[in-house]
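Appendix B, record 7
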Amino acid sequence: MAAFDPWDPAFVDDPYPAYAELRDRGRVTYYEPTDQWLVPRHADVSALLRDRRLGRTYQHRFTHENFGRTAPPPEHEPFHTLNDHGMLDLEPPDHTRIRRLVSKAFTPRTVEQLKPYVGQLAGELVDRLVAAGGGDLLTDVAEPLPVAVIAEMLGIPESDRAPLRPWSADICGMYELSPSQDTAAKAVRASVEFAEYLRELIAARRKEPGDDLISGLIAAHDEEDRLTEQEMISTAVLLLNAGHEATVNATVNGWWALFRNPDQLAVLRADHSLIPSAVEELMRYDTPLQLFERWVLDEIEIDGTVIPRGAEIAMLFGSANHDPDVFADPERLDLTRADNPHISFSAGIHYCIGAPLARIELAASMRALLERAPTLTLAADPVRKPNFVIRGLEGLSVAL
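Structure tokens (predicted):
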């Protein structure tokens, strides 16, 4: 297992050879450093994402002690209060109720109506990049676009948006494997500050509702069923974090892949109708979410290996998306790939509710860059972020 090392910079830079080794070893492998069962193959990951014997949480059925786990440290409570009331970390019936109510305010029609705004904003950001003769694609285009879009949806005033990305980055640090005490302290502080801000915003929207998502969450109800204030706060944070972290990283990961595959970039520049399939292929090729965890609520068996209740399974999305049993020549970037059942947006009841919006944002920024910056080139090789679970770059320097 020397090849699989989430803390090794060489592995983080390119985990795909290690994934191939894992797939060759079998359908499931126990990894002692994190006390997890690694699942690397597409068929198993896809099936387990839909398996109700697994859960994002166990607290709807067990106490920490009954499940054989230790409760989080008390000083982490603000993070867990925020995180544990969001639908990503809940199971039915709470997950079902919250997702149903959120869906009332987060409809396909709402997302579709954002298309002109997203396209206009992407164009403005790229125009500024062109006028400057280049810059950092991450900070100049990839980051401000989805942050502005989700903030606009939530109804967060432009003057209040500066802390959103830092808050999100600090909170998401807790999703890495074995986060440090410093990472946890930053996540707790960001959780407290973000929750306090949203509590004030919700109070203001109760007095003066608007046509934004926060107002929609307040109004959403079904047979007298409503979101609690904590559920609204946690939902808003989840929508912001998930609504831009993945898009930011997918954008820079994608363009870094295009620069490393100039033949495919040339194909895309020659035929902009490939943008939709290019978005899907780039999400598959270097997905921004490499690993997704589940608790084993009821004993399961994978290929003769019994995994007991209380164990944790780590589904390797990056590996599943490179499984040769599903994808022909998976290590090759192919923007014309027709059959592309990648699982970058997960599956089952936790399928990403924001996937349609992410696709709109990724396509909009790609189209704006292709049309308004047709000579875009890489100015310097990027530095990979040290994170493994959420995969991204420190920046992506480009020139024209």
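Remarks on this record: The mean pLDDT is 94. The CA atoms of residues 220 and 226 lie 7 Å apart.
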